[in-house]
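Recall from the previous lesson that a structure prediction takes nothing but the amino acid sequence as input. Here we apply that procedure to NAD-dependent epimerase/dehydratase family protein from Roseitalea porphyridii. The sequence below is the only information supplied.
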Amino acid sequence: MRRICIIGISGKLGQYMVEHALARGYEVVGVCRPESTAKLDRFGDRITIFPGRTDDRDVVAEAVKGCQGVLVVLVPWGVDNYATGTAQAVLDSAEAGARLVFSCGWHISMDGKDVYPWRARAFVAFFGFFARPLRFADIGDQVEACRRVFASDTFWTVVRGSDMEEGESDGLPVWSRHVGDPVLASNLTKRTDFALFMVDALTNDDLIHEAPAIVGRKTASARAYAEAAS
Ligand SMILES: NC(=O)c1ccc[n+]([C@@H]2O[C@H](COP(=O)([O-])OP(=O)(O)OC[C@H]3O[C@@H](n4cnc5c(N)ncnc54)[C@H](OP(=O)(O)O)[C@@H]3O)[C@@H](O)[C@H]2O)c1
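The prediction returns the following tokens.
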């Protein structure tokens, strides 16, 4: 892996991914909305920015040229299929054989075998009910984006984040195939470690065609699982 592209590079997750990618010696390019480029000033000429909406197919095609890896922040903002357009643009224009790693939340299910706590179900139902009529967000858009990724024949990974908190890194999160597995019960990950998992997934072939649900490695549930396994 030499050159990577981050689609949605200016957000919190995107900026953490820049830090981890630069630390690994990757050449980093990225796409973000033109009004957000100033958020990346601290990286100076260590990164190359392609200003544009992340669902702009021409901008994405230009940015991913020559990239062996693409990290994609999928967000359901608005009601114009932004996440779906973003995912499709990447699927259509990434280099053949490139590793593609997408972000989303636990609410996305690849095989329908996830078992959600009632609070998570209630939140998604509440958010979904109000967000779309208010034209604020459309959870169904992120679901459709991931459905297209799951159906594609690219080398994809969909990383499903738990609830997030800021703070110092606890190291690479642990993961499981299904929400509801005991190791995930703590439902909390440092945002920088979510980013670390995304960047690490670029070179972890065990994660190709997986949708890992992650949790912080120092959380109570992850520790209990590790102790039981040792
Ligand atoms: N927040 C959580 O607790 C949580 C939990 C689980 C999973 N996740 C997943 O983590 C990823 C990023 O989440 P995050 O909370 O850490 O956010 P984030 O990194 O701040 O990313 C937000 C992204 O959304 C873009 N954005 C914001 N408003 C927008 C708008 N109106 N139209 C288009 N793009 C807009 C931002 O671009 P600009 O810089 O241009 O504004 C940025 O790229 C997502 O895939 C999310 O599903 C988050």
